[in-house]
Structure formats: structure tokens, C-alpha cells
Here is the input.
Amino acid sequence: MNGSRVHALIPAAGQSVRFGGTTLKQYAHLLGMPVIAHSISAVMRHQAVDSVTVALAPDDGIFEELIRPDFRAVLTVDGGETRAQTVMSGLNHIARNHPDCDWVLVHDAARPCLSTADLDRLLSLGLESASGAILAVPVNDTLKLADHSGHIDQTIDRERYWAAQTPQLFQLDALRSNLEAALAAGLTPTDEASAMEAAGVHPLLVKGSSTNIKITGTEDLALAEFILQQQSVWE
Here is the structure.
């Protein structure tokens, strides 16, 4: 590592409409802890990460009760209506409270299976890249492009396609200014790399793992449980 100050940001203001049920996915039960607790722990335990900020929905009444007792040092801030607005709020909070921050590591609240090896590889390579870096995995499945009627229009060459993951690592000032510009232009970036790309930046792709899954439905919890149990054996 190059001695840069790295702060983690976890956007967690979403309402999990695709998850189903009444429990927000970040607070779903996973091996005795809420999903988000695993995600916080995954980034917090790395020695290069100075602190963690979680951006919550303004009406979130669960974090302080379920998460705060085990994570006293974690800072919180109100998020926005979209992921991009939530990340923007978090970046502004970090800039105000951590003027020494060089880099920000943005990680999904519902991605609890990030391994130490993947995070270490991202930080080792990403901190040497002026363009920043993201974890991603090459697409292995055959890709089909659909027409408007739901039929196959063509098969896509998958050789250069990657599926983006988190964490995503960028210099704080660069991400902050480029995300602000994207929002001002009416764009709605679905990840941080998209905001950087809109500004002409080409972030580094760092190969991650298929085990770094994102919880999107209740069926993902069983797989996440298995992955975490295996990681505890090998890490």
C-alpha cells in the first residue's frame, strides 16, 4: 500500500423492493448477524481502511438498534432517493469529516461475502491506478441480445464483457466531482465507475470472485451462508 488514507462508504438507503417480504435485505438474518454487518466487517477488518461511513434512509430506525452496538466507530449520514444521490451524500460527509481522506472505497450493503484476498488485491492494484479500480468478474455465459418481442436478436461476443462488483475504489475528490457532474447532467449512474466513465475516465478492472455475491432475493441468503462458512475455514 502507498500510505494513502482510505475511507469506506456503504450506501444503504435503498428500500429493497426486489427482495420481497417486510425485512429490508441489508437487515436480513445471515449467520446470526444482519447482512450489512457482514459487509461492514469485510471492509473494516482491512488495515488500509481508516473508517467506515454508512449512508442510511432518513427514516431508518433499525441501524442504531441492530448494528450500532457492535460498530460504535461507524459514522452514519442520510442518503438520498437513488444510489447515486446516496453515494453523493456519503462522499460529502467524508470530505467534511475526514479532510485527510485520499481514497474512498464504496461497497454494497448487500454484498456480505467479500473476501480478504479480493479486497487486498483491489487495494494493492487500485491504489496504484490514477483512474481508480473496481472488482469485477469476466462473463462466462453466452450472451444473447433480445429484440422487442423477447426473441433472440443476436449472440454477443462475451470476450470483453465483465460483470461489475463492489468495492469500487476511487480518489475521493475525483469521484465526488464526477458524480456531482453526472447528477447535474441528469444522469443516474448505477455504480461509481459509471460516473467516472461519463467524465472520460477508464477505471482498472481487478478480477474478483464469483463468491462475492449480492443479495437480491431471499434465495441468495442460503448461498451466502454457505460461502461465508467456507471462507471461515480457509481465511
About this structure: The chain has a mean pLDDT of 94. The domain at 6-234 is CATH 3.90.550.10 (Spore Coat Polysaccharide Biosynthesis Protein SpsA; Chain A).
